[in-house]
Design brief:
The chain is of the alpha+beta class and 330 residues long. Helices cover 25% and strands 21% of the residues. The chain is built from 7 helices and 17 strands. Strands 1, 2, 3, 4, 5, 7, 14, 16 and 17 form a 9-stranded mixed sheet that branches. Strands 6-15-8-13 form a 4-stranded antiparallel sheet. Strand 10 and strand 11 form a beta hairpin. Helix 2 crosses helix 4.
Length: 330
């Protein structure tokens, strides 16, 4: 029985695995998780994850390869029913900057799928360069515009300031929030573009914006970018580069255009209320994401996602990666 692919629900693609494919995926993930040396960031273990991709169900691999080539009108793909539910899951971390260093089944799934979409990457200045990172609410960081916060998180391309920002962002749900309020929000330039006024489209396509590093990179992350456009590339299918909390317009026309874009993000956004066993992939080149507000309780059962970044062409960032590794420095 093959994977069922639904591209009509909420306008986004979703994949539900058959029972046979779930069992095969579980075997592959368990095998990768058990591979030596059992450390997510170790090159040998990453090699095991890369080989694990080849062993995943063929229909799942076909769906993911299709998404890599064309991420569709919303630039998102939701995988449901993955074998990651674990009754022995430890308490949700509450430490700022927490990451997953030891190999687990969820980390194995994230990394194997990442290896099929391209290559997993991270940034030395963010989350200590870990390839699998925890996205959890942290006490005292409620108002933080980043993964540690719990207030409304504004729309952004991941690491929009960086010349080698990820092509894809993978988020797997280990534990939902208590009240079912936390929602991953996404908005795609392919949906927004026909709604933009011609004047705003022209301004957004010109270098009238600068973007600062996000707070997760720390105070020493450097200055804002040189002026850049928000929309670039093919006029009928542009790339998107913006962070509504960190991108500053240079002048009143740019400010008006950015406000129009932000309003359209809100108008066209879709919301994913992720459950355990869900994994969503966001095409960071054309889609922004954010999160609705929620109320953490800090009782060990709060919302817990894990995150991995992917670059489709790792070679482009070679000068930034010492020893041809997966972590970008500088």
């Amino acid at each position: 029985m093959s994977v069922a692919i639904d591209t009509t629900s909420a306008g986004s693609g979703s994949v539900s695995l058959s029972a046979d494919d779930v069992r095969q995926t579980e075997r592959v993930a368990a095998s990768v998780a058990a591979a030596s040396p059992g450390l997510v960031d170790d090159p040998a273990w990453i090699g095991a994850a890369r080989r694990g991709w080849d062993e995943l169900p063929a229909s799942l691999r076909h769906a993911l390869r299709g998404f890599r080539r064309d991420s569709g009108p919303t630039g998102t793909l939701l995988l449901r029913g993955l074998p990651v539910r674990d009754p022995a899951l430890p308490p949700t971390p509450v430490v700022n900057g927490s990451v997953q260093r030891e190999a687990t089944v969820p980390a194995a799934l994230l990394m194997s799928i990442a290896c099929g979409l391209g290559d997993p990457t991270s940034f030395a200045s963010e989350k200590s360069g870990a390839l699998v990172q925890d996205v959890v609410p942290v006490p005292g960081r409620e108002d933080f515009q980043g993964n540690a916060g719990s207030v409304l998180l504004s729309f952004h391309n991941e690491n929009a300031f960086h010349p080698h920002r990820p092509d894809f962002v993978l988020l797997i749900c280990l534990r939902a929030d208590h009240d079912g309020l936390a929602g991953l929000r996404t908005a795609c330039v392919r949906t927004v573009l026909p709604l933009l006024s011609s004047g705003a489209r022209e301004v957004l396509g010109s270098p009238q914006f600068v973007t600062a590093p996000p707070p997760s990179f720390g105070a020493g992350a450097g200055d804002a970018t040189t002026p850049h456009p928000v929309l670039s590339g093919a006029p009928d299918d542009p790339d998107l580069r913006v962070d509504l909390a960190a991108t500053e317009p240079l002048g009143p026309r740019a400010a008006d255009a950015l406000s129009e874009l932000a309003e359209l993000f809100d108008r066209t956004a879709q919301t994913f209320r992720l459950l355990p066993q869900d994994l969503v992939i966001v095409d960071n080149r054309v889609t922004v994401h954010g999160r609705t507000a929620f109320q953490p309780r800090y009782d060990g059962r709060d919302r817990w996602l894990q995150r991995t970044f992917v670059c489709a062409d790792l070679r482009r960032s070679r000068a930034w990666r010492p020893g041809d590794g997966h972590v970008l420095t500088g």
